[in-house]
Automatic annotation (TrEMBL):
Residue ranges with Pro residues bias: 75-87
Signal peptide stretch: none
Region (Disordered): 1-21, 35-87
Biased composition (Basic and acidic residues): 59-73
Lineage start: Bacteria, Bacillati, Actinomycetota, Acidimicrobiia, Acidimicrobiales
Superkingdom as given in the UniProt entry: Bacteria
Any matching Pfam family: MT0933_antitox
Organism (species): Iamia majanohamensis
Protein name: Antitoxin
C-alpha cells in the first residue's frame, strides 16, 4: 500500500511539473474549452464556466509556484573545471 501511495505521489508530482512547464499552453487550453462550453450552452452557464475557468487557472498558478519553489531548493549544478590554455 505504501508503494502505491508513493507511486501516486510521484505521478502527481510529474503531472504538476508538466503543467508548470507548459502553463501558457494549459491556460490557453482552459480558455478554449471555456469558450466552447459557453458557445455550446448558449451562455446559459456562463457564470459557472467562468468560475471553473478561474479555479483551473488558479491550480495552474499553484503548480507553477510549487515548481519554482522546488527548483529554488535544488542545489545548482556543479561548475565544470576550467582549462588553462597556457598550461
Amino acid at each position: 500500500m505504501d508503494k502505491l501511495k508513493r507511486n501516486a505521489g510521484d505521478l502527481a508530482d510529474k503531472a504538476a511539473d508538466a503543467v508548470a512547464d507548459n502553463a501558457d499552453k494549459v491556460d490557453g487550453g482552459i480558455d478554449k474549452v471555456a469558450g466552447t462550453v459557453d458557445q455550446k450552452t448558449g451562455g446559459k452557464h456562463r457564470d459557472k464556466v467562468a468560475k471553473a475557468t478561474d479555479t483551473a487557472k488558479g491550480l495552474v498558478d499553484k503548480a507553477e509556484a510549487r515548481a519554482a519553489e522546488e527548483k529554488a531548493k535544488r542545489p545548482p549544478p556543479p561548475t565544470p573545471p576550467t582549462v588553462d590554455p597556457d598550461a
